[in-house]
């Protein structure tokens, strides 16, 4: 796949730092430190290089992730913040430049996001046979592969995204849906094999492309990877069993109402949700693809005269879902999207308008899934249990202070945001 072409996400999906990586772990550009050094009579010793290359140097340990907030437990009677998670399936940078665009949109609106990377986007077309998908022949992928330029562009965006506090998850590899070897038919062992390959392609992109002198991704992917969304939302049961065994912390492959999340099979169930669908009597899943299917069917470029209206429907539906939570139970709003220009790019416009509208509001936190599970794990379990008693759009009848007036439990032991176990 040439970098000047769009990265495919399936046949309509059935249903900067290169020279300064040593300072990336500090979250600063180092200018203040250099100025202080210049003021001293004796030059200070050079700071120790915090970069530790991993494997072939495709990834590296560079210290704690910058801009990752420390989760805080709710205080006595405190109203919970309104969390909103924007996430992207199969994240890669192609000629549309949507990855880089939404990185910029996030920075401008005080937001961080989760990017679910497809591993084959870091595997060159000429090396496609290295991918051995479960229940398929070697080199098979329903979303294609990439070329050197496309890989370099994607790696650059992944690097910058992580340094800005965003999360890099996985959307696995070949994106197989439906019958005949689709992910819904995969065993637990199949899922573990697919996950291992997705991680391998991220950890060896330099070897596979020959770009040995390029800057590494500034994270250890074995530690960075804690969650995923399955292709077409299929195969969730066996995936979750595999993910639990592999130490994942959450899954976002399901469908739920706008209520507070709980754990399922030891993972936080951060399913996407049903929100109002303007002009319709039924509710709609918080994903661009589902809005499209209910507007133009399986045609990705429907009637141009309706593009504006369709985007407005998605924007207004997401905003109505947001207001329902913000003024009601404060359940996190989970939104999923693709870097695609379906129906003239109207859904990308809708998502951008939602980000601009909600992420700068008081008491709103637009965060990654990692940041959300860190916060959930830091809370008093009794507080979360109370929050889960609130229905969709239901605010506490006597106010938040009375509703969450119970005494605060002792702070959890261990590092903030550490997994609470497999319970």
UniProtKB/TrEMBL annotation:
Alphabetized InterPro entries for the sequence: CE4, Glyco_hydro/deAcase_b/a-brl
Bias kind Basic and acidic residues: ranges: 31-42
Compositionally biased spans, kind Low complexity: 405-423
Domain of life where this protein originates: Bacteria
PROSITE patterns (UniProt xref): PROKAR_LIPOPROTEIN (PS51257)
Region called Disordered, residue ranges: 27-50, 404-423
Stated name of the protein: Secreted protein
Organism ancestry: Bacteria, Bacillati, Actinomycetota, Actinomycetes, Kitasatosporales
């Amino acid at each position: 796949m040439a970098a000047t072409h769009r990265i495919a996400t399936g046949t309509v999906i059935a249903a900067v730092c290169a020279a300064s990586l040593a300072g990336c772990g500090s979250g600063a550009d180092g200018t203040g430190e250099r100025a202080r050094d210049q003021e001293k009579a004796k030059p200070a010793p050079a700071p120790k290089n915090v970069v530790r290359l991993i494997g072939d140097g495709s990834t590296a340990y560079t210290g704690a992730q910058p801009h990752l907030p420390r989760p805080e437990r709710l205080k006595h009677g405190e109203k919970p913040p309104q969390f909103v998670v924007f996430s992207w399936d199969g994240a890669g940078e192609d000629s549309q430049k949507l990855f880089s665009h939404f990185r910029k949109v996030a920075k401008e609106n005080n937001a961080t996001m989760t990017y679910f990377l497809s591993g084959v986007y870091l595997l060159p077309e000429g090396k496609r046979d290295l991918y051995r998908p479960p229940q398929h022949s070697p080199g098979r992928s329903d979303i294609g592969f990439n070329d050197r330029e496309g890989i370099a562009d994607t790696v650059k965006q992944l690097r910058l995204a992580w340094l800005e506090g965003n999360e890099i998850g996985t959307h696995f590899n070949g994106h197989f849906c439906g019958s005949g070897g689709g992910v819904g038919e995969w065993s637990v062992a199949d899922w573990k094999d697919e996950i291992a390959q997705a991680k391998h392609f991220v950890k060896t992109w330099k070897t596979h492309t020959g770009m040995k002198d390029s800057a590494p991704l500034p994270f250890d992917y074995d530690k960075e990877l804690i969650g995923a969304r399955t292709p077409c939302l299929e195969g969730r049961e066996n995936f979750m069993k595999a993910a639990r065994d592999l130490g994942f912390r959450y899954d976002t492959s399901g469908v739920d109402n706008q209520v507070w999340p709980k754990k399922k099979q030891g993972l936080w169930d951060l399913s996407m949700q049903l929100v109002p669908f303007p002009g319709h009597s039924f509710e709609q899943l918080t994903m661009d693809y589902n809005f499209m299917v209910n507007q133009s069917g399986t045609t990705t470029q429907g009637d141009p005269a309706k593009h504006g209206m369709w985007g407005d429907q998605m924007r207004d539906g997401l905003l109505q879902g947001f207001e329902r939570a913000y003024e009601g139970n404060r359940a996190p709003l989970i939104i999923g999207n693709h870097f695609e220009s379906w129906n003239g790019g109207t859904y990308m416009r809708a998502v951008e308008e939602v980000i601009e509208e909600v992420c700068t509001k008081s008491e709103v936190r637009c965060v990654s899934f990692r940041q959300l599970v860190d916060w959930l794990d830091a809370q008093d379990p009794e507080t979360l249990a109370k929050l889960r008693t609130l229905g969709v759009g239901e605010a506490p009848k006597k106010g938040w202070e009375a509703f969450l007036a119970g005494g605060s439990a002792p702070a959890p032991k261990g590092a903030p945001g550490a997994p609470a176990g497999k319970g």
